[in-house]
Amino acid sequence: MKLLYFAWVKQKTGTGEEDVMPPAGAGNVHELIAWLKTRGEGYEAAFADLGVIRCAVDQEHGDLDTPIAGASEVAFFPPVTGG
Amino acid sequence: MIRVQTDDFDIGAEVAALTEGRTDIGAIVTFSGLVRDASGGERVASMELEHYPGMTEKELARIETEAHERWPLQATLIVHRVGRLAPGDNIVLVAAASAHREAAFEAASFLMDYLKTRAPFWKREEGQGEAHWVDARESDDKAATRWKR
Question: Do B133 and A56 touch (CB under 8 A)?
Fold first, then answer.
């Protein structure tokens, strides 16, 4: 599964893109985040406040309950600020 | 039509391209957004616009499709710049063309409200101090909720 990070989420995790094999128990975005937070301080800092984290599963907006089974790409980012 | 680009755009040329060879358009509303030199009381020297290549285009296409479902539109255009921008530079252009002005006004407003709350772009401002990521505004979320149905 490809993970992407943008804006300050990318700065905090220290990476913009990585390929990972989440544990079988990680069935939705929330469970994926819980696993990511065990991977180091940067991830813990990036996901400290889930109220300011937005996500997309296969390039469509999702939320913490969105399933990730079969997904090839999950992205994490702050609320958008374009326009 | 949707474009994400580093280059500047010319509003007059974009509108001319949109209407070329057509006589069914009675109204065009355009909105363009520019980089301001101040934000939250701080000077802005430059701005960096990051986006999510792939999803950006898909999300803009979804927003455009929804506008066409809601209003009788002859054409729409969204152009958004990415990369490094300076105060006074164009950031975004939205155009909505319809037979009558009401649909064009409303659709242009809708396109901007949804773009600001759904399209994956992020602004990073650089002033005198350290560069910082711009926070999302609650007023933008509020503006977008008026189109909920």
Answer: no
Partner residue facing B121 (CB), from A59, A61, A81 = A81
Structure confidence at residue B18 as a pLDDT band (50, 70, 90): very high
In a domain, A83, yes or no: no
A20 near B CB under 8 A: no
Looking at residue A39, what is its pLDDT? 96
Residue A1 falls within a domain, yes or no?
Answer: no
- Tell me what ipTM this predicted complex has: 0.96
Q: What are A10's two structure tokens?
A: 């990318």
State the pTM of this model.
0.96
Q: Is residue A40 part of a domain?
A: yes
Q: CA distances (Å), B47 to each of A46, A59, B90, in order?
A: 23, 25, 11
Residue A28 lies inside a defined structural domain of this protein: yes
Contact in structure between A22 and A1 (CB atoms under 8 Å): yes
Q: Which domain holds residue B51?
A: 2-145
What CATH number is given to the structural domain containing B34? 3.90.1170.40
pLDDT in tens, A32-68: 999 999 999 999 999 999 999 999 999 999 999 999 9
